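Quick look at the format.
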Amino acid sequence: MESFSTLIRTASREQHEEVRGSTFMSDLLGHKLGVDAFARYTEQLWFVYGALESGAPRLAADPVAGPFVRPELFRTASLEQDLEYLRGPGWRSGISALPATLEYAERITECARAWPAGYVAHHYTRYLGDLSGGQIIRDTAEKAWGFTKKGDGVRFYVFEQIPNPAAFKRSYCALLDAVPGDELERQRAVAECKRAYALNNAVFQALGAEFPLSA
């Protein structure tokens, strides 16, 4: 039987490519958008990761989701540092979640409350995605807007407590393969992973509508 980590990675590959190929992300990585678009994207991440990490303490002892509650992954504090740099000390009163972001965050909260395997699906799509592809975004931001390498503005993308990302990803896949549950539950989790990518892509589409190719 195919391992759960292989199943979830294979099944989500198409959605992953859609996200990578979104107009907003293509424009951002192509240096076609200004720093305000990057800051707006960072705002949306704060709402999404707030949902992921506010639900984590309740799940720490859960047999399914508990092994994935890893403090070395937590991003909220780094996002808050970035937002203070990008938006100023009063950033909390000036940011807002797009409707697509609210829908995304609410789904994460729902899974954290009632379905641990669904929470794991969202955990996988976010943390492993930003640990991997997020480094391309960091490099782009540093080059396009002169941010200090791995410094203010891009701290979200710097996983200081994970010195060996490749080894961490292997251990993460082992955790996925050890998730308890029957084949039906695994398939439900895979479907939720696809849903997570779709929700994320909807955020990109909304950002693309808000920033239709600014120089």
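Next, a different chain entirely:
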Amino acid sequence: MAEQQVQPLHNEKHANIKVKNGVNVDFLKTQHLMPVVAHEFARVATEFPMAFVKNTETGQFQAVAMFGLQPGENLFVDGDKWTGSFVPMAAARYPFGLVKHPEQDQFGIVIDEASPLVGEEEGNALFEDGKETEYLGRRKEALVSYVEFARVTEAFTQYLADKELLVQQTLTVEIRGEKKDINGIYLVDERKLNELGDEDFLELRKRGYLAPIFAFLTSTHQVARLARMKAQREAS
């Protein structure tokens, strides 16, 4: 995979730069987990299993979509094609990113110049006569939304952790007659959820957390789908 060359976006330096639509398959093909935000859980659940992973250093949890059953494996990349019908926001925002200003609560937009989606030949122009194009405006809005969604998701995840609703589990899948364990992931504890008192349950409803919780629970059934995909891949 080519090294990234992330640079601050500038109307003079990037005057002639265009960005093609699509996803950076080169990057995705080695990603078996991808961060997701609560706002897209319902959409993610139709295709990918979700889990929470714990940062061993900070103890913080992060919600992720699973694209594969082991590190470095993405079952949704076939050759140079993304076969999923949906791309989580964390991947869709590439080749752009936001970088927080060290002293102020402000963000600057950056672009990966080495991305296969970036060039001068084809794609969507970023600037016209030094001014931002409508396309760039939309991409910026999406980046800002993502930062906001990520904050909300962090609060949601922390709340689940505080209420002890996240439990470490081993998922067992069967691939061509062989059982395989997936360790180190956390799921929503359905039993504990059902045992919550009325007050706590109401609080979840008030905060708008019930929909993402149910979407998350539904998504875990997609693990069987990944196992089928892996079996097919190994058979071929």
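The first strand starts at residue 6 and ends at 8.

See the schema section for token definitions.
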